[in-house]
UniProtKB/TrEMBL annotation:
Residues 234-452 form the Coenzyme F420:L-glutamate ligase-like domain. InterPro entries: F420-0_g-glutamyl_ligase, F420-0_gamma-glut_ligase-dom, NAD(P)-bd_dom_sf, NpdG, P5C_Rdtase_cat_N. PANTHER family: COENZYME F420:L-GLUTAMATE LIGASE, PTHR47917. This is Coenzyme F420-0:L-glutamate ligase/NADPH-dependent F420 reductase. It comes from the Bacteria. One of its GO terms (molecular function) is ligase activity. The keyword Lipoprotein does not apply. The lineage of its organism: Bacteria, Pseudomonadati, Pseudomonadota, Alphaproteobacteria, Caulobacterales. It holds the Pfam family F420_oxidored. It comes from Caulobacter ginsengisoli. Residues 4-100 form the Pyrroline-5-carboxylate reductase catalytic N-terminal domain. Keywords: GTP-binding, Ligase, Magnesium, Manganese, Metal-binding, Nucleotide-binding, Potassium.
Amino acid sequence: MASIAILGGTGALGSALAMRLARAGWTVVVGSRDAAKARDAAAGLAALYPDIAISGAGLAEAAARAEICVLAVPYAAHAETLAQVREAVAGKIFVDTTVPLRPPKVGTVQLPAAGAAAVEAAQALGETVRVVSALQTIGAEKLAAGGAIDADVLVAADDAEAAETVRALLADIGLRSWHVGPLANSAAAEAMTSLIIQINRRYKINQAGIRITGKPKDAPVTAMGLSVRPVPGLPHIAPGDDLAVLIGEAIIAGGVELAEGDVVVVAQKIVSKAEGRTVRLAAVTPGAEAIADAERTGRDAAMVELIRAESSEVMRVTPGVVIARHRLGHVAANAGIDQSNVAHDEGETALLWPVDPDHSAAVLREALQRRFGVRLAVVISDSLGRAWRMGTTGTAIGVSGLKPLRDRRGESDLFGRVLQATVTGVADEIAAAASLVIGEAAEGVPVAVVSGATYEPAENQGIGEILRPLDQDLFR
């Protein structure tokens, strides 16, 4: 990837951008009026993320060392900074994120005489610089959080090629963007910031944003409903495989188009395989309790030892099965440990659940969103039994991007009666729908895309809320 300078990279927005771009593989130069401060900021990020390429320098030097420059300074420092870097940015793409806020009235639109700060930048830098306006409606706190962002970016530029270059850059850090026309239209995005500040204040919203909605004019009109599409073509997964890359390639090769809000459901088995959760039973030494339980169940003692090691509580031991509370809180037969669809070339093996399925889902979601440029949710599923029911169904064991429960209490039914107890396990419902195409035998389709599901988007929300607390155990 190209090198990029963040001018004002020690501020809140600049440092958040530097972090995201460096983690996405860009070579980043943090620029500041104080070169020592810039070097310290770069060193701090390098300490957190050792594999990134980042350095610090003064403003003019940083601009000279980069192919693309991003200005992230307060409006009060706008003109002065432009003057300092004018020669260094000649012939380059220059991204201006500036909003003409004039404290203390930051909630009031106050555009400059030129119409927009980005237009002022173009006038100050000269005709050889391709100025692009972007990021005025994305808060620094959202960027710094590191997760997916449920908001869009408006990009204004007179040079269409430069605009598309910047849009590709934004996609690299997980942002969906729209080219909204000439640079003069930056006035709308810059003014929008004051409106967002008002919304945050009046409605106690944390980091409000904007989202462009609608459908292509030539899109077919379809009835509302749910669709589940298999993602075929994944190879056999081995430890260390980059699962996000392989899933992304299979989605493209299979012609499966991802849309905003789609849920990618991934079978636990391939996640566990990629994370190296396969265990050879010959390497397991069973303890006395496992040996005793093995005699009662007729199961291999090594297998029972694995079940005990993965469980916080063994709840029932019967012929053929051990019912256990997995260390993650799920109650399942054999603590979710399975031997199906696992190679046994070097002796009997078993496959454990991922160490942290929520984290696994979040990693997959971030990578897939960055690749496809749309907001997604990811569910990691396994087939589990249910109390007093025969057969298994797809069940969510890890989620990212959605609340696993949909609380409908307070809504009205068809006859106006207020719902008192309706809380839907939407993550499990999505997993169950996907299991119809993922299959349990030799189908070889461990990923499905669910479109049209109704759920509440959420950042940093795991599967935990769907697990009933122990003090509400209805069977003991």
